[in-house]
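Input record, target 12 of the design panel.
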């Protein structure tokens, strides 16, 4: 399928921004970042016509790109600031990392699938996003070489957030992740690390692919 016509893309992005505002994604910085990242660049050719639809779409390696409202909700909950160094667990299509790169100093993103990392790198290069560092690695272990992080976002679900991620979050930092059974409905949670411990807030019911330890052998 050919690329989306620029005028059609403009119309679809405008419709997307209206949907985001209707459901409470009102942080103008977040809205502007989503506006600046063409979502159709991050989907497979056969689903490009649905790139701006309000649903998750399949990508390579049996993974998905989250629905636009979920990306907006997670980004707003993370409250990215221009000086932030952000760790993303689950690169996937690269879309969430691209949005965060518009809002922060640097994004470090990990995926267990080398194919996804390679494809995302190509997309980042196309969009001239040079403040993203990638790795094919075990996301449950975080990225200790670059810790501590100001913010961490996890785009796959587990029964509990790996302790290694909390250990790599600075005091005052924010972590956003889906928590719950990988095969069922999870709760999207926002965690804030304080001197006294970790405080959590439930944001919404969601469905994400499972967070799996290790690195995929073939992909």
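The sequence produced for target 12 reads:
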């Amino acid at each position: 399928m050919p690329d989306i016509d620029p005028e059609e893309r403009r119309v679809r992005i405008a419709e997307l921004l209206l949907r985001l505002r209707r459901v409470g994604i009102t942080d103008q910085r977040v809205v502007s970042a989503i506006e600046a990242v063409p979502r159709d660049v991050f989907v497979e050719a056969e689903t490009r016509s649905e790139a701006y639809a309000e649903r998750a779409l399949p990508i390579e390696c049996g993974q998905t790109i989250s629905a636009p409202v979920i990306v907006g909700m997670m980004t707003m909950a993370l409250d990215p600031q221009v000086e932030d160094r952000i760790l993303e667990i689950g690169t996937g299509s690269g879309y969430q990392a691209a949005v965060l790169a518009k809002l922060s100093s640097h994004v470090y993103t990990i995926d267990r699938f080398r194919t996804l990392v390679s494809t995302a790198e190509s997309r980042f290069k196309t969009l001239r996003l040079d403040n993203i560092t990638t790795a094919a690695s075990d996301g449950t272990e975080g990225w200790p070489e670059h810790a501590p992080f100001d913010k961490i976002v996890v785009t796959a679900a587990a029964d509990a957030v790996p302790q290694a991620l909390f250990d790599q979050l600075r005091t005052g930092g924010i972590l956003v992740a889906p928590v719950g059974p990988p095969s069922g409905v999870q709760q999207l949670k926002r965690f804030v690390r304080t001197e006294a411990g970790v405080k959590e807030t439930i944001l919404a019911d969601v469905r994400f692919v499972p967070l799996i330890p290790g690195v995929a052998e073939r992909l």
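The domain at 6-206 is CATH 3.40.50.150 (Rossmann fold).
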